Amino acid sequence: SAVISQKPSRDICQRGTSLTIQCQVDSQVTMMFWYRQQPGQSLTLIATANQGSEATYESGFVIDKFPISRPNLTFSTLTVSNMSPEDSSIYLCSVEDRNQETQYFGPGTRLLVL
Amino acid sequence: AQKVTQAQTEISVVEKEDVTLDCVYETRDTTYYLFWYKQPPSGELVFLIRRNSFDEQNEISGRYSWNFQKSTSSFNFTITASQVVDSAVYFCALSGLYSSASKIIFGSGTRLSIRP
Fold this sequence. Notes:
The complex is a heterodimer of chains A (about 110) and B (about 120). Chain A has about 110 residues and is mainly β. Chain A has a domain at about 25-100: Immunoglobulins (Immunoglobulin-like), CATH 2.60.40.10. Helices cover about 0% and strands about 50% of the residues of chain A. In chain A, strands 2, 4, 5, 6, 9, 10 and 11 form a seven-stranded mixed beta sheet that branches. In chain A, strands 1-3-8-7 form a four-stranded antiparallel beta sheet, with no helix packed on it. The N and C termini of chain A lie far apart (about 35 Å). By secondary structure, chain B is mainly beta.
């Protein structure tokens, strides 16, 4: 399975600021995904990131709030912009493995917005 | 619309007991994948199993077993002889079969606590 790392692992941020989360994979993957897990809740897909094209956002998520970059086949970033306490969540990236058997998830970034 | 329901919010059992986590799904797709993931207190999401809708054969992996019943749209997960290390939140999930950008729909999760 792919090995996925995320930076930072956790952060505490002030309201109104922005945070960029990095996701690095140890192999080239076509599809990368960003999920949000609010406290005590399940995971919700934010967007799907293809290399070389604009990310596809799910209903309720917009590019201005969650801009995503996908500069190459092993890396992606998610920015949480103009943060509010409601953005406090775990943000996870995931990748579809080479044989499309399943999606594997990174360790997550725990974000607390004060 | 696709939906995954895990009616059991929390389960607590004593170590060595068997425990079954229920999962019921809804989809209009005729072909799909079902998953179980484990999220221990550390927070990472651990892949446990993927099942495609063509294969209703039950699966066993060590102390874990999965019962897929297409007739009742259920994909239940049983842990035999539970251990404290099994304590985690378990998510059942569903996705389409053929799209390389398949969106995974997660259930709300079942928090399992194994008491020593």
